Amino acid sequence: MGQPAEKVYYRFVVLFFNCLLTFGSYFCFDIPSVLQDQFQGNLTCPNATVINGTVDCVVGLGMSPQEYNLLYAIYAWTNAVVVIMAGFLIDKLGNRFGVFLFSFLCVLGSSLFALGSHFRGTPYLLPLMLTGRLLFGSGNGSLTIVQNRITAFWFKGKELALAFGVTLAFSRLGSVLNFFFTQRFEENYGMQWTLWGGALLCVLGFVSAVIVSALDKVGMKQLGLDGAIQEESRKVRIQDVKLLSLRYWLLVLTIMFFYNGIFPFIADASKFIQDKYNDYSQKQAAYIAGAVYDSSLVLSASVGILIDYVGLRGVFAVSCAVLTLPVFGLLAFTFVPPLVSTIWLGVTYSFAAASMWPSIPLVVPQATLGTAMGLATSIQMIGIGISNLVVGQILGTKSSETKIPLWRWQRMMIFMLANTISCIVTSVLLNIVDHKQGGTLNKTTKRSGQAAGDSDREPLYQGEEEPNEDDDDDDDDDDDGAIRSHSVNS
What we know:
- The protein is mainly alpha-helical.
- Helices cover 74% and strands 1% of the residues.
- The protein contains 21 helices and two strands.
- A hairpin with a 2-residue loop joins strand 1 (50-51) and strand 2.
């Protein structure tokens, strides 16, 4: 009778608690987007007037558009710096070290961010909230790396894209619930309690970290892999970054350029909808902006199953970039209902996330996956951080008491278009290089899993002698035994 860890149900139990790691942190991440009016609102409204039953002034924290976008930029820049070393440390010290440390940083950062809201109208508000976002970014970006590493360990060569899709769906569930309930909660209980509620959800991630860590430890011992993994981890060196392939770098650039057009847009989408389309309230605008995540939540798992079945990850990467182009054109130069564009963007985002991120384990050795994921996240966040700063400059630096002019929003959309065009270029180059190297990305999961298993067995240094490949190939056809053959270098 096999060990529980060798059964299909065990890896899906691990997946469930692994998904919960980032549920609360994704909820917290976009709270400022939903409450952008409150973050940029006036400290007081002494001369407020009522027009058509609504007050023309919002009491808030008094941030300028530039300061507001800095909340997102500091998150991205922190990720860019921290996740490189975080990925390396995870490879060296293991998943259990990572989940405890980074989930705790999420709790600490979200708590400090909430504490900052108590200092409205003082010089301490912005430094406290930026420090909170810095710590929160240090934890959340790095926690995603651990989450992806655990997913790749348990599902490589099996339902890999499905597992990544389900993980994304759970994270996006947090984002969706934020866009649906945060504004209503803030109306009833105020901004401070809203931010503290987000911090409490991050505590859920810490509890999940304890559970998934225990499951991962027990599972590896039952599979007899704990010692082998520790041995491989000791061999990982920071210099191995130089040996990552051209395919990997093109894949990372493709991810960066695509996400440059997603997250900076969502950060300002709620206000954009209110400013350009006069018929939407703050609550309605938040719902429409959140439709990007709604689509992702609904589609992620089914898209993952599709990609597991047909492969074509590189083809999907190109297609997603091409099909995203019309979205920003519609938003910039037409008055087509914004819900059409946000749902459309959510669909392309779902396919992109389910095809791009699960491709990384297929083009790098398993022993360096944490480092590779960390570096990919870092470059992604560098791009997003730059984009947030550029968007902040485009939209203006003065206090946002009135609508931002339409021409400024159009310039922002053109900037999003430029990033999407760059994504098309890098994704086409990725497919060309991948085709020359065997077409691993466009194979089905089973075939690409075998190819990735071969790459795991290849030495990082070409001068080393390769081990006999015949010993492991027979295991690939055994659903339960595949964990052993694909994960020995995790």
